[in-house]
Amino acid sequence: MTGRVYKSTGSWYTVKTELGQTYECRIKGKFRLKGIKSTNPIAVGDFVDFELDDKNNEETGVINKIHERENYIVRKSVNLSKQTHIIASNIDQVFLLVTIDNPPTFTSFIDRFLVTAEAYDIKAVLLFNKVDTYDQETLNEVRYLAHVYRQIGYECVGISAKTGKNIDKVKNMMSGKVSMFTGHSGVGKSTLVNAIEPSLDLKTKEISMQHMQGQHTTTFAEMFDLSFDAKIIDTPGIKGFGVVDMEREEVGDYFPEFFALKQDCKFNNCLHLEEPKCAVKNALEHDEIAASRYRSYVQILEGEEEHYRTDNWDKE
Questions:
Q1: Are the C-beta atoms of residues 96 and 125 closer than 8 Å to each other?
Q2: Rounded distance, CA 134 to CA 162, Å?
Q3: Residue 259, Cβ neighbours under 10 Å: how many?
Q4: Residues 145, 114: contact at Cβ < 8 Å?
Q5: 198 exposed, middle or buried (CB, 10 Å; 0-12, 13-18, 19+)?
Q6: pLDDT tens column, 41-73
Q7: What is the rounded radius of gyration, in angstroms, for the C-alpha atoms of the chain?
Q8: How many Cβ atoms sit within 10 Å of the Cβ of residue 209?
Q9: Separation of alpha carbons 7 and 83, rounded Å
């Protein structure tokens, strides 16, 4: 039988078939994924083949094959620096929830996430949440950040999960697609999911209670079918986003505004650091690309994983 993984709890996977039947499945033996050391061999969104097993009078499944993934969102594992964690796979688009304060979302975190989405060719949309709670100064920060990312080509939407502002717009964007929602803990993901699909209320409460118990280690996503021909993958809040599996030479290609200028650099393999006649550095000096974006780029190249916790953006 073939189905899609809707939920993972580490050793058990909830798999749903095309006919809508769900089975609790486990893995047969060890899965080794080509070229990627992952803490989770099977991710939410994966298509899998499984056989039914009737032991102990309970019908469960045994997964024996993972279909090739179209794409996935991957990050460094929280506990094991050499390992990666696949958050979800086979996604049409990802919505990153951003809040200016309570909690603050720094541009270095946003940029790391966008670089990963670019690398796996997944459309990313920035949702600036809690706009109903901001004073004028904070709203100006939202406008500035939205301007920075719109210039690059990213869609940015100001929303309020509480008041319902622009929720219909988000639902329209989700229609007919598999969408993943992510962001730091406390950015209002569960509230937004409930605003989009109120019938999920109980489930998201249960999920968030589960995650409260082990925020540092619980990294399980869950997929839901919505009432308006859409699927949503809800993910627990993530603290940091370590970029993985990228060569230094290719990181700049996942900053679209850098990639657009690359052909104008003197050297084909320009890293946009100290090289002469670098089009990216020239654009930076003339305020044609954002200083915060360039700073994120340098941090990724240097492998500075901790800066997303402290390094705020500025307009200079």
A1: yes
A2: 13
A3: 13
A4: no
A5: exposed
A6: 889 999 999 999 877 677 899 998 899 999 988
A7: 21
A8: 9
A9: 21
Residue 205: band (very low, low, confident or very high) from pLDDT cuts 50, 70, 90 = very low
pTM of the entire predicted model: 0.84
d(CA 121, CA 316): 31
Q: Report the percentage of the chain scoring pLDDT > 90.
A: 55
pLDDT given at position 213: 35
d(CA 129, CA 189) in angstroms, rounded, equals: 9
Closest by CA to 107, choosing from 256, 293, 239, 258, is 293
pLDDT in tens, 223-235: 999 999 999 998 8
- Return d(Cα 111, Cα 291) in angstroms, integer: 12
Q: What is the 3-state secondary structure (H, E, C) of the chain?
A: CEEEEEEECCCCEEEEECCCCEEEEEECCCCCCCCCCECCCCCCCCEEEEEEECHHHCCEEEEEEECCCCCEEEEECCCCCCCEEEEEECCCEEEEEECCCCCCCCHHHHHHHHHHHHHCCCEEEEEECCHHHCCHHHHHHHHHHHHHHHHHCCEEEECCCCCCCCHHHHHHHHCCCEEEEECCCCCCHHHHHHHHCHHHHHHHHHHHHHHHHCCCCCCCCEEEECCCCCEEEECCCCCCCCCCCCCHHHHHHHCHHHHCCHHHCCCCCCCCCCCCCCHHHHHHHCCCCCHHHHHHHHHHHHCCCCHHHCCCCCCC
